Amino acid sequence: MSNPFHERPTRIEIDLDAFAHNHAAIRSRVGVPVMGIVKANGYGHGLVQMAQALERQGVEQIGVAFVEEGIALRKAGIRRPILVLGGIFGPQVSQYLDHDLEITVSSLDKLRQVEAAAEARGKRAVVHLKIDTGMERIGVHSYSSAAFIQAAAASTWCFIKGVYSHLACADDPASPMTLQQLERFHDACAQFERIGAPMPIRHLANSGGVLHFPETWLDMVRPGIILYGVLPDPASRPTIELKPVLSLKSQVVYFKVIPEGATVSYGATWRADHQTRIVTVPIGYGDGWPRALSSTGRVLIRGEQYPIVGRVCMDQFMVDIGAGSAWNEDEVVLIGRQGNELLTAEQVAARIGTIPYELLVGLNERIPRHYAGGRT
Ligand SMILES: *Cc1c(COP(=O)(O)O)cnc(C)c1O
Fold first, then answer.
1. Predicted model pTM
2. Which of 50, 127, 226, 357 has the most CB atoms around it within 10 Å of its CB?
3. What pLDDT does 376 receive?
4. What percent of the residues of the chain are helix, what percent strand, and what percent coil, each to the nearest 5?
5. Out of the domains of life, which is the source (predicted)?
6. Mind listing the domains of the chain with CATH numbers?
C-alpha cells in the first residue's frame, strides 16, 4: 500500500460482506436491475473498492457523479457500464467517449454538443436523457420534454439507452411529492410511444424510492446510501434489512486526571465541575470528523458511551470518561459497534443536525480504509 497513513491506528473498516448483503437484499426486494451509486469516494467507503465489489456481485450498472470518477474507475479496470449522473461540459464529451462512459443529456443544447463530439470522433455516444419532474436541478422540464425526446430519438450519433429523473422527497414515505413526480415522469416517457421510438430503460428510484415507493422501481433502481447500510433520513423506514458497512475507530493516545474547574481544549468552552478523567483521541476535523461534535458527540470506550468535551481540534479531541477506566491504546469507536453498544452514522449525523451522507463522504483520505470479507 502506498498510502503513508496505512498503519495509522485511526482507521476505517469496511465490511464487504455487509455490503454484499445489502446489495443482495435490495436486488431481491426490487426484482429489477440495479445501478449501484459509488460517487464521492463510494460515500466515503472507497470509489474503486466499492465498484469492484459491485462488479463481483454482478451489478448491472454503476453510477458516479463526475466524468473524473468514471475515468478513475476505467483506469482501475472496471468493465461494467458506467453512467455519469452529473451535467456535462461540452469540451469534456470526448473524454466520455474515450473511456466508454455513458452520458447524462440534460438539455437540447447538450444533446447537440454530444452529437457534434460523437460525430467528430466517429463513435456513437451512449446517453441517458434527464427529465426534471420537480427537483429543479438538471434536466428538461417534463412539461416541455416532447421536443427534446423527439430530437434525441432522431439522433444518429446518440444511442438513447436510458431516460431518468430524480426524486426530491422519497426519503419521507409520507410525502405526496414522489407520486406527483412519478406521474410527470410517465407523461414524459409517453412521448417515446407517441413517436414510435423504442422505450429506453426508465429509472427513477434513489434509496428513498427503493425503500418506500415500489411504483418508482420501473426498469432499474439507483440506490446509493442504502447499499452502505445507512438510511437516508430519520423519517425513512427500514423496509429492507440493512447492515452498516463502515466503522470508524481510533485508540486512546493519552490519559490524564484534571481538577475541578479545569477547562478543556481551544476557547476553554468546557469546564470540569469536579475532578475527572480525560482521554485524548488522535483524530479531528482534519480527517473530516466534524468540529460540530465539540461537547456534543459521543464515543465508545471499553463498551461504554462517553461524551466528547471541549472543541474538536484538527487532529485530536478529548473525552470525559468520568470515573471510568481507559488505557493508552484502548480502542475508541466513533462509528460502529463495540461490545453491546452501537453508534450509527445516522445517530452521529443527527447529533449535529446533518445527514449521514455528509458525515460519511467527509471522512477523508487521511484515514486509511481497511477492507475485510467480500471474497464469496
Ligand atoms: C446520488 C444519486 C442517487 C443515489 O441517491 P441515494 O439517496 O444515496 O440513494 C441516485 N440518483 C442520482 C441522480 C443521484 O445523484
1. 0.97
2. 127
3. 56
4. 35, 25, 40
5. Bacteria
6. 16-228 (3.20.20.10), 246-343 (2.40.37.10)
